[in-house]
C-alpha cells in the first residue's frame, strides 16, 4: 500500500539510551510512501533543503504535543481481554482454572472471537501499542482471525496459537502432539499467505508453559522452532507454586529454564514472560542463548506472583521489555505498565536499596527500544532514525492558562507552562492515559485517530 509522503514537525522525544531521552523541540521527520523515515532534522527549517518534499503533507505536533515511538507490548493474551480486571484473590494456578480456561475455551465460537479480537486490537492501538505479541487460544480458526484483524487494522503483531496437551480440562487442550503440531502449522501457513515476508504479522510458536505440555509436545515444538527459525513465546518462573510444579513434573531437568533449553525452545528469538524467580544459573543460561524477557509487573502484582528483579536482569546484560499480560495484568495500556514497572522497582528498592529503582526514562526505554530488541526488530522500530519504520504516537498534553487552546478532553495531564520537556514526559507517564494519545501510526499508516489529525 502506498502512502502519502508526510513531514512530521514539532517535538520529537525518544530514548537515546537506557537512561537518557533525546528531546528535539523544533524538529522534522520525513516519512516516505513506504512508511519509512527518510530524513530526520533537529531544526525543522532544514526540511527546505530536501529535494522532492515540497508538496508533502504536514502533520504538526503543535506546542503542547510531541511524537513518541509506538509502544511494544511483548506479552498479551488477546483472548483474555474480557477478563481484564477480573482476578479476585486468585494466584496463577487457580486463576487459570477459575477464569482463564473457561473463557479461552469459548473461542470455538468465531463470532465471539471476532467481537473480542476486534476490540482488543482497537483498544491497544488507542493506547499507542504499535506492536503486540499475542497469545490467542488453541483454536485454529480464531487464531487465524486474530492475525487477519491485526493485518487489516494495521497493527504490527506476533500471533501465536496456544499449544498445550495437558493440565487444562480435557475439553480445552490439544488432543495429541500430532494434532497440536498440525494446528500450529496451519496458523503459520495462513500468516505466510497473508503476509509472506512478515512485514506486519509474524507467526510465533507458543507453548503455553512447561506444565501445560508433555515432554513429547515440548520436543515437537522445539523441533519446529529449530526447523523454521521462527520466534517462540512462553512463560517462565512466574510463581513459586508453578516453579515447584515444574520441578515435580520434570524431575530430570536441573531447572525450569533447562526444560526449555533441553527441548530446543530456548533461542535468541524466544520471549520468556515473567522471569520472577530465576536462579543465577538460569539467568546465565538465558543470556548464553540470548533469549529475551518480558517483564509483566501489573500481572505479577495482581496475582501476587512476586517482584521481578529488573535491575539485576539489566545489570547482567539480559534483554528486557514490558508486557501487559492481559488478563493476569489488568491494563491493556503499556503506559500504565511502565508506571507499574517503576512502582514495583520502588518496592524492590525498599528492601534492596535505591539501586533497584527504575527511572521514567528506563521504563520508557523498556516500553520501546527494549521491546524492539525483545521482538528482534531493533533495526526497524523503537526510535526515530533514518531507515526505521514510522511506528509512532502523537501525545497531547493539556495546557492550563490564559492561552488555553485545548479543553479537558485531552486527559489529565495538566501542564501550567513552567515545565521542562522531561518534566512533561514524567507527568505523562504518571498521570496520562489514552486520551492523550491523539494519533498512532504503524509503518506510516494512520491506525488510530482520536480526533482528526491536524494537518
Ligand atoms: Zn501470560
Automatic annotation (TrEMBL):
* Catalytically driven reaction(s): guanine + H2O + H(+) = xanthine + NH4(+)
Drop me one GO molecular function for this one.
guanine deaminase activity
Q: Mind naming one GO cellular-component term on file for this protein?
A: cytosol
Q: Which GO terms describe its biological process?
A: guanine catabolic process
Q: Note the Pfam families from the entry.
A: Amidohydro_1
Q: Does the keyword Zinc apply?
A: yes
* Amidohydrolase-related domain residues: 68-447
Pathway the protein takes part in: Purine metabolism; guanine degradation; xanthine from guanine: step 1/1
Q: Which domain of life is it from?
A: Eukaryota
Q: Which family does it belong to?
A: Belongs to the metallo-dependent hydrolases superfamily. ATZ/TRZ family.
Functional description taken from the UniProt entry: Catalyzes the hydrolytic deamination of guanine, producing xanthine and ammonia.
Q: What is this protein called?
A: Guanine deaminase
Amino acid at each position: 500500500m502506498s502512502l502519502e509522503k508526510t513531514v512530521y514537525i514539532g517535538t520529537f522525544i525518544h530514548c537515546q539510551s537506557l537512561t537518557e531521552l533525546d528531546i528535539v523541540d523544533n524538529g522534522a521527520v520525513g516519512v516516505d510512501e513506504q512508511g519509512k523515515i527518510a530524513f530526520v532534522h533537529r531544526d525543522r527549517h532544514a526540511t527546505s533543503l530536501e529535494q522532492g518534499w515540497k508538496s508533502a503533507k504536514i502533520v504538526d505536533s503543535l506546542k503542547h504535543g510531541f511524537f513518541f515511538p509506538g509502544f511494544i507490548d511483548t506479552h498479551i493474551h488477546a483472548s483474555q481481554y474480557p477478563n481484564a480486571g477480573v482476578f479476585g484473590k486468585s494466584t496463577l494456578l487457580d486463576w487459570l482454572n477459575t477464569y482463564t480456561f473457561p473463557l479461552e475455551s469459548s473461542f470455538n465460537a468465531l463470532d465471539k472471537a471476532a467481537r473480542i479480537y476486534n476490540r482488543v486490537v482497537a483498544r491497544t492501538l488507542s493506547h499507542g501499542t504499535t506492536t503486540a505479541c499475542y497469545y490467542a487460544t488453541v483454536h485454529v480458526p480464531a487464531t487465524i482471525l486474530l492475525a487477519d484483524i491485526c493485518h487489516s487494522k494495521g497493527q504490527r503483531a506476533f500471533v501465536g496459537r496456544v499449544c498445550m496437551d495437558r493440565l487444562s480440562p480435557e475439553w480445552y487442550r490439544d488432543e495429541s502432539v500430532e494434532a497440536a503440531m498440525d494446528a500450529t502449522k496451519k496458523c503459520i501457513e495462513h500468516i505466510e499467505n497473508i503476509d509472506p515476508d512478515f512485514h506486519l504479522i509474524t507467526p510465533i510458536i507458543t507453548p503455553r508453559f512447561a506444565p501445560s505440555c508433555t515432554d513429547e509436545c515440548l520436543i515437537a515444538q522445539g523441533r519446529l522452532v529449530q526447523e523454521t527459525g521462527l520466534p517462540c513465546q512462553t512463560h517462565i518462573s512466574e510463581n513459586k507454586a508453578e516453579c515447584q510444579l515444574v520441578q515435580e513434573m520434570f524431575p530430570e531437568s536441573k531447572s525450569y529454564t533447562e526444560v526449555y533449553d533441553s527441548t530446543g525452545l530456548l533461542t535468541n528469538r524466544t520471549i520468556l514472560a515473567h522471569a520472577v524467580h530465576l536462579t543465577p544459573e538460569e539467568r546465565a543460561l538465558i543470556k548464553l542463548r540470548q533469549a529475551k524477557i518480558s517483564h509483566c509487573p501489573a500481572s505479577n502484582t495482581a496475582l501476587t506472583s512476586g517482584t521481578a528483579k529488573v535491575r539485576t536482569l539489566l545489570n547482567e546484560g539480559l534483554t528486557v521489555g514490558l508486557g501487559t499480560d492481559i488478563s493476569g495484568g489488568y491494563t491493556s495500556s503499556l503506559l500504565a505498565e511502565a508506571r507499574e514497572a517503576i512502582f514495583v522497582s520502588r518496592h524492590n528498592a525498599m528492601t534492596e536499596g535505591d539501586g533497584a529503582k527504575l527511572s521514567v526514562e528506563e521504563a520508557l526505554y523498556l516500553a520501546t527500544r527494549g521491546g524492539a530488541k525483545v521482538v528482534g526488530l531493533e533495526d526497524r522500530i523503537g526510535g526515530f532514525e533514518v531507515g526505521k519504520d514510522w511506528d509512532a504516537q502523537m501525545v497531547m498534553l493539556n495546557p492550563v492558562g490564559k492561552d488555553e487552546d485545548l479543553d479537558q478532553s485531552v486527559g489529565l495531564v495538566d501542564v501550567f507552562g513552567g515545565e521542562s520537556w522531561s518534566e512533561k514526559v514524567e507527568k505523562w507517564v504518571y498521570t496520562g492515559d489514552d486520551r492523550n494519545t491523539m494519533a498512532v501510526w504503524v509503518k506510516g499508516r494512520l491506525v488510530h485517530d482520536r480526533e482528526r489529525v491536524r494537518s
